[in-house]
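As described in the Methods, two query proteins were run sequentially through the folding procedure within a single session, without resetting any intermediate state between them. The first query and its resulting structure tokens are shown here.
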Amino acid sequence: MYDFAIIGGGIVGLSTAMAVSKRYPDSKILVLEKESRWAFHQTGNNSGVIHSGVYYKPGSFKAKFCREGCQSMVEFCQAHDIPHEVCGKVIVATEEKELPLLENLYQRGLQNDIPIAKITAEEVREIEPHVNCIAGIRVFSTGIADYKKVCQKYAEIVQRQGGDLRLNTKVEKIVETSKGQVLETKQGEFETRFVINCAGLHSDRIAKLGKVDPQAKIVPFRGEYYELTPEKRGLVKGLIYPVPNPDFPFLGVHFTRMIDGSVHAGPNAVLSLKREGYHKTDFDLRDFAEVMTFPGFWKLAAKHYDEGFQEIIRSFSKAAFVRSLQRLIPDVQMEDVVPTHAGVRAQALMNDGKLVDDFLIIKGQHSVHVCNAPSPAATSSIEIGKAVVDQIPEPEHLRSTVRA
């Protein structure tokens, strides 16, 4: 009998396991991951950015957890010698019509207590000499990190605390019992008093297995990237972002210097025809049918059909993708970029077509379900873990062992 079973071995699942082991050091903890390694999906394919929290609605989980997580992630990387850098970033306006949006973003940054400054086009070019813009803002606390190594360290910490970590173990059924729940897998059954669902791309399905209404459906969006060729990496010194569309959940095509020195350009955002669809040809009938028969998707598509069409064009046309990059750096040419990995964002969508724009944490009778944790979940992972543990009723048999 385990006290806690965490489903999902991405950065949120492992950080939650770490938070549980800290709060309840004598508890028996199980982490189940269906893949052969940790951080296989969203975590292992993200841009590696330590976000500041500048974009998110004041008072939201994202704003709070990201602002605090930006600091706690840097401190964690420092404490465990994980490659990282607080390099800052610039967000730039390239057209007059973007200036009011840039001002709104600056004010939001101030509301969220983010270290931020308005800078002129000349000051932007002192930081990023090749950028084309008419104004910008500088976000000082943004950084980059190796999140795969962060996850590996989380797993080591949980294991050192006595946690039982199982790879290649997919949960296929959850059965309620008088003492808790039984998780059925092909590798056997695991009995636990409490379940924590951090299954990312499959979090809504795991919630339903546990007889909990996830209140939304996961719709997968693939983000495709190009990479600057090594001889052109000098065009980008750090992180360069456009002013995002405030009505669209994605930040727009941008440039990111990775921790290994490479420079990634992207992503676009297109509907994936498979929840784990990292390639254009990936298709899963169940995943596709669920989206196509979900009213919320068609309401979203009707509202954003123009942006969606542009994203599809960028997916199939390198020339169109490069043109979007040239808005920020005109010197980038077709031969300067090559395709690189893609990621899939697990975005929760409600029946009325509204995107869940905050982290979504739902309580069951003997469970907690993290049902929306896209970006900035990696940055916020330590804080999300703490918040999930705060949702757990204190087990009577562990009360004398609780750590503050």
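Immediately afterward, the second query was submitted; its sequence and tokens are:
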Amino acid sequence: MIGWLDLTAGASGDMLLGALVDAGAAVAVMQEAVDAIGVEPVHLSVSSTTRHGLAATKVDVKAPRSTVTRTWANIRAQLESAPLAEPIRRSALDAFSRLAGAEADVHRTTPEQVHFHEVGGLDAIADVVGVCAGLHALGLTELSAGPVSLGSGMSRGEHGFIPIPGPAVLQLLSDVAAPVWSGPAPYEMCTPTGAALLATTVTRWQEMPQMRVRTVGHGAGSRDVDEVANIVRLVLGEPVGQPDSGTAVLLESNLDDMDPRLWPDVLAALLTAGASDAWLTPILMKKGRPAYTLHALCAPTAEAAVRKQIFARTSTIGLRRIPVGKYALDREQASVRVQGEQIGVKLARDDGRVVNVSVEYEDVARAAQRLDLPVKEVLRAATAQAHRLFALGSADPPQR
């Protein structure tokens, strides 16, 4: 299943939450992920409303007034230690990393020195983690989006009046080459949290792709403005046409002067930046010098962010850029339990039938630590459970 976002009225965390719930994502799953962070009690409140006569779902984050000042380091530590499925954790970390980086660029400081203010508030944490959990639950193989309305005018911030669109919003969306415009309303239409979530989760920027529509979710914003129905629309459906998932970009560079201890950090940073895969190939360069070729495969929308990380974290001064075709099977997320511990499972389908089942290794390792069991035993049990529940060759939906 694929998804497409209509962002004519911009985007915010609560609008994206509402669209996900309206499209069928269980609010209980999102609430469970928010609760797992371990901050002050936060509740996702769901209600029905209308915007310009269109029925929509409004999700409000009910949180107590907090005096805790949270930095990027604080939020990162909470996300890394929380009992979340690895894809949810990875997406949430990526969104907050992008927010910290954008704020750092705007204020000409470093991400670790950014004071998060509203971005580090409980509502923003709930927005980011809830949206990441909702998308994970839907198991989309692709999420695309149309142009983002940003708004216009001025807004009062902590340091006085600032122009709309805000500097951080522009930075976040420029990093992923998102198409933007001011839009029909003279207000802030896209928030920094909304922009960070779009930069993290949207895999392609385009008009609505060919699909057989299954459902449409409408997520309402807080304002009911005159100029536009203040909603995000999430359209879900089955792709039509060839299974080609589109053109990808392969970035490569040969390096013979890197300390090999740096490579794990480099590969992890590229995946966080949006690369779908990153790997090394040992080679011999001129004069018999041992070296590596660094490869990073990514969607065109993630190319700028991945390229930026390569130049920042390696010694290279140049890259090869190779457009490549790419085929991908339809994928969906499920889970199994081993002695009460939840472990994510990825299912791959060809013509609707399951052909591959893979358990999330990070979930396995975390469960093994909690159960005080060898990783290989938990891996074996989770794999066996997955094969029992999701039989290869089956066209039936996953058993929950």
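The chain has a mean pLDDT of 88. We note this only descriptively and draw no conclusion about the first query from it.
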